[in-house]
């Protein structure tokens, strides 16, 4: 069983999407993605996840432990994924281009956040004066005029 982990043989295929796995256990875990079942619940906030690994990654967000350090600037992150995204800032790689204005971004998330600026959607409404804003940051800045 252990030697299978070192080979490239993937004999267990998902009937839903065709993705192949080395072990039956890996296939079983994967099939949860298609079922929509979320059996793993965060004890901190109640959010539910399909896999235990997703829950584990999520619970790190509740912690103040930042064990992943950027070798370039020393900034620390809670997850390896967050560090990986951060290092794109140092690399200068910007593969995601806005179709509207041509500005380039290191991640698709950053691009999506930017493209929202081009839309007319304003979903954040000021409870004091009724003015609407595109982002939480915009309304937070606006709220300063009321206090």
TrEMBL record:
A cellular component annotation (GO) from this entry: nucleus
Protein name, UniProt field: Zinc finger protein 90
Native source organism of the sequence: Portunus trituberculatus (Swimming crab)
SMART domains named among the record's database cross-references: ZnF_C2H2
Keywords tagged on the record: Isopeptide bond, Metal-binding, Nucleus, Repeat, Ubl conjugation, Zinc, Zinc-finger
PANTHER family assigned to the protein according to its UniProt record, in alphabetical order: ODD-SKIPPED - RELATED, ZINC FINGER PROTEIN 208-LIKE
Sample GO molecular function, one term: zinc ion binding
Keyword Zinc attributed: yes
Localization of this protein: Nucleus
Ranges that cross the membrane: none
Keyword Repeat: yes
């Amino acid at each position: 069983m252990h030697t299978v982990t070192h080979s490239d043989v993937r004999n267990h295929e998902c009937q839903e999407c065709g993705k192949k796995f080395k072990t039956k256990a890996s296939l079983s875990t994967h099939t949860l993605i298609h079922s929509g079942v979320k059996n793993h619940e965060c004890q901190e906030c109640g959010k539910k996840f399909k896999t235990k690994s997703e829950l584990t990654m999520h619970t790190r967000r509740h912690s103040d432990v930042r064990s992943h350090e950027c070798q370039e600037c020393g900034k620390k992150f809670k997850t390896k994924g967050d560090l990986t995204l951060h290092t794109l800032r140092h690399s200068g790689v910007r593969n995601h281009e806005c179709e509207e204005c041509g500005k380039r971004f290191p991640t698709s998330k950053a691009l999506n956040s930017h493209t929202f600026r081009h839309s007319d959607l304003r979903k954040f409404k000021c409870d004091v004066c009724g003015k609407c804003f595109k982002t939480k940051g915009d309304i937070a800045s606006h709220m300063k005029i009321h206090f």
